[in-house]
């Protein structure tokens, strides 16, 4: 495989709670405290951020700071597109809105291929400005990647400026949808709104809930998901730490949800997908040390996952 490169994207402007911009550094501190030289083993790139925009007056209540999220996603798109030529990017991001930039960069690097997305998360992130109850864009990256506004579930009036920026988001890197609904699989989604539930049903998006994974068997569920994505030439794994059980692990994330995976289940899911040899990028998001009531526990657990799956990446796959 290509050598690994770490892409550090300390942006949190798509979140509703500040602090995920510190998540990358919290993971690095966790590594240092564990005596690991992980972050000295790989080249890295820092993505410019626009976090000071949190102090701007919000022009849109249905898509907060969308003009700056567009800029951030463009920066990440450009980085991923460039680095995929020579590297396997491992992206460490703040909030999950930037995943739209990562997906865009992958699609722009592989425009003729089907991009499969495995989204390990407590949330579906399928809202658009037309449906979002919060206006936080970290709940919208997949709607933008699918280029689907879910107008059948519209509840919000969207002003022309916001509409323009939203259209810009959907066109980053590659004109039109970056992924197709049948090429998206969820693991662990359990905290959704009605508009997202309706969209998941309309688009027939498969969600392997925690209970199903444990009842049917993790290997069985992942294998089934990989059959569904077998026509995809490249795969992207997005791991939001809130997919893990907040009561078991930590509340150190913007939107913690109980009854999630443990870290060993997440590692096993990602490892099995890596063994397809189709994965071209992995992203870890939403560590927020400011909300962690157990010291740096969420970052420590995220690093445990990161270190384990990196070992799978670098070891020969039989």
From TrEMBL:
CDD domains: Arginase. Keywords: Arginine metabolism, Hydrolase, Manganese, Metal-binding. The keyword Acyltransferase does not apply. Its cofactor is Mn(2+). Pathway: Nitrogen metabolism; urea cycle; L-ornithine and urea from L-arginine: step 1/1. The keyword DNA-binding does not apply. It comes from the Bacteria. Its EC number is 3.5.3.1. It is an enzyme of class 3 (hydrolase). Belongs to the arginase family. This is Arginase. It comes from Flavobacterium polysaccharolyticum.
């Amino acid at each position: 495989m290509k050598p690994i490169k770490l892409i550090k994207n300390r942006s949190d402007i798509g979140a509703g709670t500040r602090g995920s911009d510190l998540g990358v550094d919290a993971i690095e501190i966790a590594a240092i405290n564990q005596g690991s030289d992980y972050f000295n083993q790989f080249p890295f790139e820092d993505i410019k951020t626009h976090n000071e925009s949190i102090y701007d007056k919000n022009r849109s209540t249905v898509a907060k700071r969308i003009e700056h999220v567009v800029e951030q996603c463009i920066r990440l798109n450009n980085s991923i597109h460039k680095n995929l030529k020579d590297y396997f990017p491992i992206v460490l991001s703040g909030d999950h809105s930037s995943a739209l930039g990562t997906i865009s960069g992958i699609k722009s690097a592989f425009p003729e291929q089907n991009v499969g997305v495995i989204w390990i998360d407590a949330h579906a992130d399928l809202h658009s400005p037309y449906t979002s109850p919060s206006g936080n864009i970290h709940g919208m990256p997949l709607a933008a990647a699918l280029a689907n506004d879910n107008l059948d579930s519209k509840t919000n009036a969207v002003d022309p400026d916001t509409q323009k920026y939203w259209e810009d988001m959907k066109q980053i890197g590659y004109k039109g949808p970056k992924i197709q609904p049948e090429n998206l699989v969820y693991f662990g989604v359990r905290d959704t709104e009605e508009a997202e539930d309706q969209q998941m049903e309309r688009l027939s998006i498969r969600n392997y809930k925690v209970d199903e994974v444990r009842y049917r068997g993790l290997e069985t569920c992942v294998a089934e998901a990989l059959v569904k994505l077998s026509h995809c030439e490249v795969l992207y794994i997005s791991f939001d730490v809130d997919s893990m059980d907040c009561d078991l692990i930590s509340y150190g994330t913007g939107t913690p949800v109980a009854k999630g995976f443990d870290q060993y289940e997440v590692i096993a899911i990602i490892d099995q997908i890596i063994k397809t040899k189709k994965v071209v990028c992995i992203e870890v998001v939403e560590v927020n040390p400011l909300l962690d009531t157990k010291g740096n526990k969420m970052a420590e657990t995220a690093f445990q996952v990161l270190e384990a799956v990196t070992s799978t990446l670098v070891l020969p796959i039989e």
